[in-house]
Amino acid sequence: MLVGSIEAGGTKFICALGDENYQIKDKAYFPTTTPEETLGKVADYFSQFAVEAIGIGSFGPLNLDPHSPKYGYITSTTKPYWQNTNFVGYLKQGLHVPIYWTTDVNSSAYGEYVVSKRKQLPVDSLVYYTVGTGVGAGAIINGQFVGTIGNPEMGHTLVKRHPQDRDFTGNCPYHQDCLEGLIAGPTFLARTGKKGENVPLSDPVWQIIAYYLAQAVMQATLILRPNKIILGGGVISEELLSKVRAEFAPMLADYVEVPDLADYISMPAIEHNGSAIIGGFALAEQALWSNQK
Amino acid sequence: MLVGSIEAGGTKFICALGDENYQIKDKAYFPTTTPEETLGKVADYFSQFAVEAIGIGSFGPLNLDPHSPKYGYITSTTKPYWQNTNFVGYLKQGLHVPIYWTTDVNSSAYGEYVVSKRKQLPVDSLVYYTVGTGVGAGAIINGQFVGTIGNPEMGHTLVKRHPQDRDFTGNCPYHQDCLEGLIAGPTFLARTGKKGENVPLSDPVWQIIAYYLAQAVMQATLILRPNKIILGGGVISEELLSKVRAEFAPMLADYVEVPDLADYISMPAIEHNGSAIIGGFALAEQALWSNQK
Questions:
Q1: A240, pLDDT greater than 70
Q2: Do strands B135-141 and B144-145 pair parallel, antiparallel, or not at all (unpaired)?
Q3: Closest partner residue to B154 among A142, A223, A253, by Cβ?
Q4: Which of A148, A177, A218 sits opposite B160 (nearest CB)?
Q5: Which residues of B touch A224 (CB under 8 A)?
Q6: Option in A149, A225, A253 nearest B152 (CB)
Q7: Are residues B160 and A161, on separate chains, in Cβ contact within 8 Å?
Q8: Angle, nearest 10°, between helix axes A238-252 and A205-224?
Q9: Nearest CB to B148 within list A142, A149, A215
Q10: pLDDT at B291 over 90
């Protein structure tokens, strides 16, 4: 069996071809230009192969409501040319296969979920945070995505200020003191004059970032009680995760039981930012099954 | 059909008998003394009637893990005599009917959920916060309770301090600046020297409480994306809800769409704190059905 997976990002689209074991058989990259050009290349790419279904994890915001006439659209994005784009509709014109449509963070979360399941780990629910240009998260409970009236925006919950970070303005144009505004990639430049990858781990800014991430983990823990919380994206490293665990433990104060923190708060199991593509394969299979029902 | 419902609180147990329309046919109150005495009275009460199943919403913490040998227990409560009490096991000795076991906030949430469903309101998911001696919440997504490794403890997430509330110590022995520590009933006495019911609505403390509740609504909104968020319990009034809505709107800043705030953030539809008892009837039915499968 061959299935397709699309990770649609603001800079590039990654398209991949996989088998029933989620092994990548082929892969292609297309720059994100206009919907006509980029989606045209995506459709041409998949039409070369006998894919049975496609899973899409896309940048957003998205319309995910199957009852809406705008289901399958990218809606109010700030990305030029992509506002109000009928992503799924465009692909369905050329590719007559079932399509699973979700957010990039949801497909990443799903990739990690299915890999845990295949390893027979006791993971029925997990949260996947990604920290890069922005902060997003996907959440799965008992194999289902969380979010009834729309997808979660867990990167925009408010957090308590770190005592040494009271003067930083925050980078989110919508919210004062939300997670994204205080920890996303661009905040490193704003705070230190350097990009995150150039800020040494000895810099106190990492302690501040860890404090905010620990609050995100606290929120996810107390609201969702998942088996696992994964932190991924350009800003995350094992060193940072150690700091997050060290901040989180006294913050939770053993109020509820959680798994061993080294397992509970972890990097993605799928390396090289590949979670979304693997998730797309698994979601393509889901689309196929639900189509066959 | 007759089903039983138990709302087990730290002060009293409410037991009720209901029909298939969740109409209360009989009701009894027993003070919470020792497990033997109180559960004995509960068992005696229900053994008078031909109940087919019982739903329990209990104070906690509880063991809700069906795979655990301690399933059905109240575990590490501070309530004298009730630590490590096999609540479900005790009742099953005398009453040979299916029992649904969950938290008091979950049964309240479920009561509100089934009432919405019966009114054919578009509510597939909801969150029920209760603010009284403590702060707790139950969350339902697509008819299922949230919480894989244990029940949520949404009353203990951290919140940003209100600028006029920086000096208040907070009342939670576990967490600095958690919701419960800043808004539960006892905080009124600590802040104003008066009990909450005696603090006039003109007192600025209500604005502070509304600010923290708006942050709770913000967390629930961005993490769970529910159709509805209900605030119940002794501290809540329509006047307070108006303040919460007024704080929440600029906080969210239209970042995601939510229903009209007058519907979205509301008091319980079931009056006189009756949500948990109605929820217990519906959960008893669930226990019956899953037993018949």
A1: yes
A2: antiparallel
A3: A223
A4: A177
A5: 146-148, 152, 223-224
A6: A225
A7: yes
A8: 60
A9: A142
A10: no
Q: What angle do CA A237, A242, A248 make, to 5 degrees?
A: 120
Reported ipTM: the value is: 0.92
At residue B53, what is the residue type? A
Distance CA A216, CA B159 (A): 11
SS3 B76: coil
Q: For residue A275, what is the DSSP state?
A: H
Contacts of A165 (CB under 8 A, 6+ apart): A182, A208
Which residues in chain A have their CB less than 8 angstroms from residue B159's CB?
158, 160
Rg (chain A; Cα; Å):
19
How many Å apart are CA A78 and CA A60, to the nearest integer?
9
Amino acid identity of A206? W
- Chain B, nearest residue to A218 by Cα: B157
Chain A interface mutation, best of B128, B144, B148, B261, highest count of A Cβ atoms under 10 Å? B148
B34 token code pair: 């020792």
Give the span between the Cα atoms of B115 and B272, in whole angstroms: 15
Identify the pLDDT of residue B149. 79
Angle between helices A104-118 and A275-292 (to 10 degrees): 80
Q: How far is B159 from chain A (nearest CA, A)?
A: 6
Position A289: which residue type? W
Beta bridge partner(s), residue A144: A141
Who among B144, B174, B225 is closest to A142 (CB)?
B144
Sheet holding A265-266, edge to edge: A144-145, A135-141, A125-131, A228-232, A265-266
The closest of B151, B97, B159 to B283, measured between CA atoms, is: B97
Number of neighbours of residue B25 by Cβ within 10 angstroms: 11
What is the per-residue pLDDT across A79-120, written as a single tens digit (0 to 9) for each?
Answer: 899 999 999 999 999 899 999 999 999 999 999 999 999 999
B156–A125 CB contact, under 8 Å: no
Measured CA to CA, the distance from residue B128 to residue B268 in angstroms comes to 8
Is the Cβ pair A150, B175 closer than 8 Å?
Answer: no
C-alpha separations of A256 from A205, A217, B260 in Å? 29, 13, 34
Inter-chain residue contact B255 with A175, CB threshold 8 Å:
yes
Show Cβ contacts of residue A167 under 8 Å, excluding neighbours closer than 6 positions.
none
Instruction: Give the distance, in angstroms, between the CA of residue A30 and the centroid of all CA atoms in the same chain.
Output: 19
CB B91 within 8 A of CB B42: yes
Question: How far apart (Å, rounded) are the C-alpha atoms in residues A277 and A242?
Answer: 27
